[in-house]
Amino acid sequence: MKHNNIEFDTYFKNYPDANGYFGKYGGAYIPDDLKKAMQEITEAYFTICKSAKFINELRRIRKEFQGRPTPISHLERLSNKIGNGVQLYVKREDLNHTGAHKLNHCMGEALLAKYMGKKKVIAETGAGQHGVALATAAAYFGLECDIYMGSVDIKKQAPNVARMKILGANVVEVTHGLATLKEAVDAAFEAYTREYKDAIYCIGSVVGPHPFPMMVRDFQSVVGIEAREQFIEMTGELPDAVVACVGGGSNSMGMFSGFLNYPVDIYGVEPLGRGTALGDHAASLTYGEEGIMHGFNSIMLKDENGDPAPVYSVASGLDYPSSGPEHAFLHDLGRVKYDVINDDETIDAFFELSRLEGIIPAIESSHAVAYGIKLAKKMGKGSILICLSGRGDKDMDYIIEKYGIR
Known about the structure:
By secondary structure, this protein is an alpha/beta fold. Helices cover 45% and strands 18% of the residues.
């Protein structure tokens, strides 16, 4: 399949290039003392990703520890409520161990750390799912674990903070700036620059300097590959559309990977939050411009000084002022359509899915569900496959406190 002169049948061989670029996006904008560390990670990854021993170990972990493959569920009652014949399906990453897609790359990154002889893993987290997943991986492999988290998110995501601590992780509270995901990334990067000889920074999304956008995508691609095969087995055909939420973009890049080279419409859903004013949303691909932060070039939201702008989303895992460089590339190519869903639509979808299907989704995933419902009403016929990136246990106290029971 070809789109805008890009051959998608060879896409994954060509992107990123040797320097970590997807077109003009990506790269590694890092201090000189970290370049050697990143090169070491890159070389180790390229060595083990071709190793049958590593691949077989990862497959065993996914099957015996994570509970993969995760199923696809047909949302029959929700589809019937829409009532125009469009059928909605969800890929159930909420049923992956720890309750979200994040463990897919955390087990891979921790296995890499073990291979490299590192003693510690360091990471940031927003919604807490990446933190829980990495704390789980660290416990599994016997590694130390430091998780940096903004104080705002610590309050919103108390259940996940408790999980990380029970799993043995050291949760480091970040209080500067807006005290959310961007600041947590800043703090984790600072820590890594001090500890890179003994630690590896396990980035929680398809962001950061090369090789992380590629590496996290590769580990997450299991979601899309499984989903494509399962959907064809269930229905005899491909879905007409695939939908996933996009913050940094790990669940969506994993899902999209399975469909880029097929005649399927692909939609990435960004958080519009309270509205279009700067500071009221985190829809970087929709409203942002090219810029560099956290070691990579992508599309980001900027303030009047050209620095990363303050962002907001009801979903802690989506309030980041940029998106992964591969998303920026696919946005410019037009292969993926990026659109927005606001807080109110998200919360409505949260309750709708819970009441009609018995699935309580993460607030992040509720953005994709809300868009899937909206898209179904426009389409009139066909099928939509949504990536349900995580479960909503972590969000229930916050939702009840802020919105009540609807």
